[in-house]
Amino acid sequence: MAILGNIIKGVIELKDTFTTEIIHEKAQEKVLKELLETAKHTQFGAHFNFEHILESENPQKSFAAQVPYYDYNKINDNWWHKLQDGETDVTWPGNPSYFALSSGTTGKTSKRIPVTDAMIEAIRGSGIKQVFALNNFDLPADFFEKEIMMLGSSTDLIEKDDHKEGEISGISASNIPSWFRGYYKPGDEISQIDDWDDRVQRIVERAKDWDIGALSGIPSWIELMLQKVIDYHNLNHIHEIWPNLQVYTSGGVAFAPYEKSFKALLGKPVTVIDTYLASEGYIATQVRPETDAMQLNTDNGIYFEFVPFKPEYINEDGSLKKEAPALTLKEVEKDQDYVLIISTVSGAWRYLIGDTIEFIDVKRAEIKITGRTKFFLNTVGSQLSVNKMDAAMRELEEKFDTTISEYTICAKRGDDDEFYHYWYLGSDVEGVDNSEIAKALDESLKQANKNYKVARNKALHGVKVTIIPPERFYDWNEKNKKKGGQVKMERVMGEEKFAEWEAFIEGS
Questions:
Q1: Which of 137, 222, 301, 326 shows the smallest number of beta carbons within 10 Å?
Q2: What is the mean pLDDT of residues 400-421?
Q3: Which helix (H) or strand (E) holds 94?
Q4: Angle, helices 434-448/386-400, rounded to nearest 10 degrees
């Protein structure tokens, strides 16, 4: 009998019984006031007169009116760089204990995003919320006695002056509660290995020693790890070695593009729970099995604003125009993409995180990630967002009975000086001509997007598709950044980067 599992499940059920439902709009008003009150005597708070905002009749509107939008480059150039010079109380009281290193999907020099002790507590609080939400998924008691494999970046953080640096998944894993360490795999020793391939090889070798009940990590890297376990142990599927695997917690990117290839590695269905942990904070988590939408963490150190994702509000580099309107949680609606703006207990203020979302249930504050502001392809008016591209990939998978886990696209002129969309698809499809796939992709996008259809009848001359093994995408990431952790593939490239990509593919 799963005695410990029954105890843990009983505690979760009891907690759920006595927990009142969050009123998300009220929670957000409270979070903003707490942020402003705490930071009012910082350099940033004094500059933008947070005390005046707090005294105003509507702090949310005053805050939006007085504080401009920031992306990473702007807030780092204007404010965060002071932290490197030893200044304190810059955008948040004191100094951050950590800096999250993030190259995003650009492959450029890592961003250094402050992570305060208050943010660590906020992430931990949101993680506990996720654990308690498991009660909604009707998992058996023995699940709560199984081990959890968290495949993130290395927990061997870089010590520098008065802080430590690393990717957010490594920072989070290094701060897991002591009571959780008995469940945590691959364990402290293996998780500190910096080289991803070496770390995964150690996981592969130890896999038979563990009773894994849950997996957590970015889909592409989880899939690679599972495939290596299967190959090393000569298995048909992962459940032959981890028969009690019941839950996969996805994170960082939308799971849909990986669903088909992920399921091919399993021997039986598992419960997939989406989460949204970024370098800037724990944004949202799925709390109900009836939907794959995620609930914003509205009461844990992050204040959210939402800018309608429309071409007239977005600059070519993906940043927001000054006049772009920001809506509060009270003002949003369904069936509209929004640019996500956050203010946090790490001293990010009206910060453009780079993601776009849509609301699935406004009252419950449940969202889906729909793409990236920089991955919005609007060359010659095609107005393609990542969610439209992802949906087209799912249709191609069905039509050609294959999997397409990765892709990238560039809009550029061909040899005839006409504009084309050049696609590279990561797939194992066989016996199908690239032109046939290009035609199906073109038709799918015409049906899904009227702006694309108009562009195809005017300035956009056609679609070109090249099929390559999915592994080439992982090799590209390794070349430009490194494997594992928070590393994600850029879906849309500019012409200069795309030329590097094509040279890399031809060379490999």
A1: 137
A2: 85
A3: none
A4: 130
For the chain, how long is the longest CA-to-CA vector?
71
Query: Closest Cα to residue 215, out of 195, 189, 241, 233?
Result: 241
Which fold, 377-507?
GMP Synthetase; Chain A, domain 3 (3.30.300)
Cα angle for residues 320, 321, 322 (degrees, 5° grid): 115
The upper half-sphere exposure of residue 507, i.e. CA atoms within 13 Å in the direction of its Cβ, equals 9
DSSP per-residue letters across 414-469: -TTS-EEEEEEEEE---S--HHHHHHHHHHHHHHH-HHHHHHHTTTEEEEEEEEE-
Going from N- to C-terminal start, the domains of the chain cover 1-374, 377-507
CB of 348 closer than 8 Å to CB of 75: yes
Parallel/antiparallel/unpaired status of strands 163-166 and 98-102: parallel
Question: How many residues can be counted in the chain?
Answer: 508
CB atoms within 10 A of CB 59: 17
What string of DSSP letters covers 337-362?
Answer: EEEEEEEETTS--SEEEEEEEEEEET
Distance between CA atoms of residues 408 and 475, nearest Å? 14
160-to-100, 116, 191, 486 alpha-carbon distances in Å: 13, 15, 20, 21
Cβ-contact 332, 324 below 8 angstroms:
no
Whether residue 184 contacts residue 147, with contact meaning beta carbons closer than 8 Å, is answered with yes
Highest mean pLDDT among 205-209, 289-293, 498-502: 205-209
Q: pLDDT tens-digit profile of 54-97?
A: 999 999 999 999 999 999 999 999 999 999 888 999 999 999 99
Q: How far apart are CA 269 and CA 292, in angstroms?
A: 15
Q: Rg of the Cα trace of the chain?
A: 23
Tokens of 167: 């990717």
Name the residue type at position 124.
R
* Crossing angle (nearest 10°) for helices 219-232 and 471-480: 120
Measured CA to CA, the distance from residue 120 to residue 172 in angstroms comes to: 7
pLDDT in tens, 29-56: 999 999 999 999 999 999 999 999 999 9
Tokens standing for 466? 């090249």
Q: Let me know: does 86 contact 367? Beta carbons within 8 Å.
A: no
